[in-house]
Amino acid sequence: MRSCSRRRFPFLTFAILMLLAFSLVFAQTGKLRTLLDEAEKLHDANDYNGTMLKLREAEKIDKNNPEVLWKIARAYFDFSDQEPDNEEVQKKNLYPGFEYAKRCVEIAPNIAGGHQYYAILIGRIGEIEGTKQKIKNSYAVKEHTLKAIELAPDEPGNYHVMGRWHFALADLSWIERQIASIIYATPPKASFEEAEKYFLKAHELEPDDVRHVLWLGKTYIELDKEDQARKMFETVLKMKAESDSDKAMQNEARELLKKL
Questions:
Q1: Alpha carbon of 111 to those of 65, 94, 143: distances in Å?
Q2: Neighbours of 135 (CB within 10 A)
Q3: CA–CA separation, 202 vs 161, rounded Å?
Q4: Closest Cα partner for 195 from 178, 220, 176, 174?
Q5: Residue-level pLDDT at 142
Q6: In Å, how far are 17, 73, 119, 180 from 158, measured between CA atoms?
Q7: Residue 92: which of 113, 121, 123, 54 has the closest Cα?
């Protein structure tokens, strides 16, 4: 009897320890989910500081969680997007944000958010580093955005990024095109017509977003469709501004209207 009892106690101890371990993991998983949900509500309310604080707490629980990684990348982008003309703010946020998006893509290559913000952030980095880097980065922007569209076909932001991609490359000056030809034997092919298609798709999926309407207007200017451009800019001015970024876009629309 004693021998049997001695064999049973180690087993019971092991079982209790395993139960405690599973309980701890379950509790941590639940806490992580709660933090991510809270972060998303704050993000929807445009509370970007609050969003980042919640995501930092989530990162302490699981630093390699793909959702945590791409949402931190998005949070950095949100900070940069509030002051698009401030190079110091851009550098402070774009570079660390890109590293989070890059890690997400490496760890979980089938997560759309990782590809989406990889593309957005590397594209913005190219813009602040100059024409040569912008053109070099454009291939990665296209690759990762199209992958994000494949993985999340109903996400409007991805179509907007592709619209911006076509607009930026179609708008290259003659000198910039020569630089592109030096860097690549075949420079990226892009057009304002394709930009229009992508912006229209983004607007269809997300009609209340100011940026889709503004960029449709800018594209219509390039396509010599001034009446449609005017209509888009007037629509932008009637829309509710949800953030400082929206207000800046409304100011841009107001200035563009004056030139039509």
A1: 11, 20, 14
A2: 23
A3: 9
A4: 220
A5: 96
A6: 46, 15, 9, 24
A7: 121
Query: Do the Cβ atoms of 116 and 142 come closer than 8 Å?
Result: no
DSSP assignment of 139-170? HHHHHHHHHHHHH-TT-HHHHHHHHHHHHHHH
Q: Are 100 and 144 in contact (CB under 8 A)?
A: no
Distance, CA of 246 to CA of 71 (rounded, Å): 21
**Longest CA span, the chain:** 97
| Run of H or E residues at 118 | helix 112-129
Helix (H), strand (E) at residue 27: helix 2-44
Q: Residue 127 CA to chain centroid, in angstroms? A: 16
Strand runs (DSSP E) across the chain, as ranges? none
Judge whether 229 and 221 are in contact, CB under 8 Å. Answer: yes
- CA 232/CA 260 separation, integer angstroms: 12
User: How is residue 40 written in tokens?
Assistant: 């998303």
Cβ atoms of residues 80 and 124 within 8 Å: yes
**Both structure tokens of 147:** 């992958």
| Residue spans of the chain under pLDDT 70 | 1-28, 185-187
Please measure the distance between the N-terminal and C-terminal CA atoms of the chain and give it in whole angstroms.
97
Q: What pLDDT does residue 34 have? A: 93
Residue 3 is predicted with a pLDDT of 47
Q: Which residue has the tokens 């893509």?
A: 105
